């Protein structure tokens, strides 16, 4: 396996944002490759452009050697000392949420005409929720995901059919992808969950009842692709664990998991009413390997894994993604009108672009095809409607004008939705 993973998509975003006067903030789950992007790939690019090494100022706040610099009264004077002349200085600052008063410090650096500031951060609560407000309109976010399937295949030595099986099993965390054996991958994922993600959540939020939060993570891991809400989850806790946990506490724990970028919420959207529906909603994992590791690789439903991978790919491509809900009235066998709820897996929006997408692992029967197409026939607008499967030979439009597409065509071709 090729050992160097290129992250050209994200590198290009950093390059395009150079010298724009804003604080570039790379957010994402820990170990997804943010540090490598900033301090290896982007630094290499700067050096190739002729930027002198002493004009590239680095600091990794998560390293023990740099703990003293988490104090802004220590870091800010040090940062100013590094600037010896009027030339342009590029600050590459890793895990910025560990720096106290980091918003004021970064605004102070960005205010200097010869500073271009790039940072990474692993906590949505501090960074991603409202970057524009936090930084007074000076924050410019680039959200990074673990390796996409196309990035994974760039270092996988084999056919994409085999790569797919490995990808949906072990995910796209770079250090896991580069591990040599299945045993190493499983051990790494298990260790990352316990020693990095869960430990971070517990420490950051001063959690006392760790067991409840971990059980919630188990339930959500089992329920990818399924509608749920805090009240429903509370009933599960009560029946399975005889727990008295409240829906309010569950909502708080879900927020902690979202803040650490482990999971992401997809809201339901009423297609006809053009409004959001409060609950239930779906939760997807930022990495399928972490989800599988949480369940000890027991529940390996390929259909749900494919749906999760498609969701992440759409988000990585910059789409806002909702779950579509459609209320229709149809006559039952007695001719009596009955309300029915139909679902569209994903409604994707980006600027003027909009797509309706169904994820269907296989369409082995005419009945299954009719089931997937049915919601599309009730949507009366001109936006493209797509069904992604694992067994469509090549992209084609059926008689209803619906684009049928193989999951590999979708994932491996960045412009696949434009066919």
Describe the protein's architecture and organization.
Helix 7 (160-170) crosses helix 13 and helix 9 packs across helix 13. This protein has helices at 8-16, 34-48, 72-82, 102-110, 131-134, 149-153, 160-170, 174-177, 182-205, 210-222, 230-241, 247-259, 288-294, 302-316, 366-377, 407-412, and strands at 23-27, 56-60, 89-94, 115-121, 139-143, 263-270, 275-285, 320-331, 337-350, 353-359, 384-389, 396-397, 403-406. Strand 12 (396-397) and strand 13 form a beta hairpin. With 419 residues, the chain is of the alpha/beta class. It is globular, with a radius of gyration of 23 Å. Helix content is 41%, strand content 22%. The protein starts with 7 loop residues before the first helix and ends in a 7-residue tail after the last helix. The relative contact order is 0.09. The strands form two sheets. Strands 7-6-8-9-10-11-13-12 form an eight-stranded mixed β-sheet. A five-stranded parallel β-sheet has the order 2-3-4-1-5, with helices on both faces.
Taking Cα atoms only, what radius of gyration do you get, to the nearest Å?
Answer: 23 Å
Shape: globular
User: Widest sheet: strand order?
Assistant: 7-6-8-9-10-11-13-12
Q: Considering DSSP H and I runs of 4 or more, what fraction of the residues is helical?
A: 40-55%
Please give the number of β-strands.
13
* Biggest β-sheet strands, sense, barrel: 8 strands, mixed
Mean pLDDT: 91
- Class by helix and strand content? alpha/beta
Unreliable stretches covering 5 or more consecutive residues: none
Q: Give the SSE string.
A: HEHEHEHEHEHHHHHHHEEHHEEEHEEEH
Percent of residues in beta strands: 15-25%
SS summary, helix count: 16
């Amino acid at each position: 396996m090729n050992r160097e993973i290129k992250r050209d998509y994200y590198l290009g975003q950093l390059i395009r944002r150079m010298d724009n006067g804003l604080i570039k903030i790379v957010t994402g789950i820990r170990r997804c490759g943010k540090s490598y992007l900033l301090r290896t790939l982007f630094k290499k690019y700067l050096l190739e452009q002729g930027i002198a090494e002493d004009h590239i100022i680095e600091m990794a706040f998560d390293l023990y050697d740099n703990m003293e610099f988490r104090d802004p009264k220590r870091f800010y004077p040090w940062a100013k000392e590094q600037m010896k002349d009027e030339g342009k200085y590029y600050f590459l600052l890793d895990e910025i949420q560990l720096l106290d008063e980091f918003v004021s410090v970064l605004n102070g650096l960005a205010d200097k005409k010869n500073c271009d500031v790039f940072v990474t951060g692993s906590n949505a609560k501090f960074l991603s929720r409202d970057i524009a407000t936090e930084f007074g309109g000076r924050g410019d976010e680039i959200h990074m995901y673990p390796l996409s399937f196309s990035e994974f295949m760039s270092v996988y030595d084999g056919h994409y059919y085999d790569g797919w099986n490995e990808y949906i099993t072990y995910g796209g965390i770079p250090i896991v992808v580069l591990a040599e054996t299945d045993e190493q991958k499983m051990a790494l994922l298990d260790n990352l969950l316990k020693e990095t993600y869960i430990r971070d959540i517990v420490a950051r939020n001063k959690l006392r009842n760790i067991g409840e939060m971990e059980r919630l993570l188990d339930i959500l891991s089992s329920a990818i692709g399924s509608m749920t809400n805090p009240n429903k989850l509370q009933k599960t806790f009560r029946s399975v664990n005889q727990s008295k946990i409240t829906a309010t506490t569950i909502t708080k724990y879900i927020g902690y998991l979202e803040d650490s970028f482990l999971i992401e919420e997809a809201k339901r959207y009423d297609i006809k009413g053009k409004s959001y529906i409060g609950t239930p909603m779906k939760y997807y994992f930022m990495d399928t390997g972490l989800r599988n590791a949480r369940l000890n690789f027991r529940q390996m439903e390929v259909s749900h894994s494919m749906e999760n991978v498609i969701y992440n790919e759409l988000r990585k491509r910059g789409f806002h993604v909702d779950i579509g809900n459609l209320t229709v009235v149809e006559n039952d066998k007695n001719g009596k009108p009955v309300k029915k709820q139909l679902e569209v897996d994903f409604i994707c929006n980006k600027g003027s672009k909009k797509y309706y997408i169904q994820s269907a692992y296989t369409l082995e029967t005419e009945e299954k095809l009719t089931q997937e197409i049915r919601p599309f026939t009730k949507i009366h607008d001109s936006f493209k409607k797509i069904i992604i499967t694992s067994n469509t030979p090549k992209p084609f439009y059926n008689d209803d004008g619906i684009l049928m597409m193989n999951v590999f065509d979708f994932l491996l071709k960045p412009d696949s939705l434009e066919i």
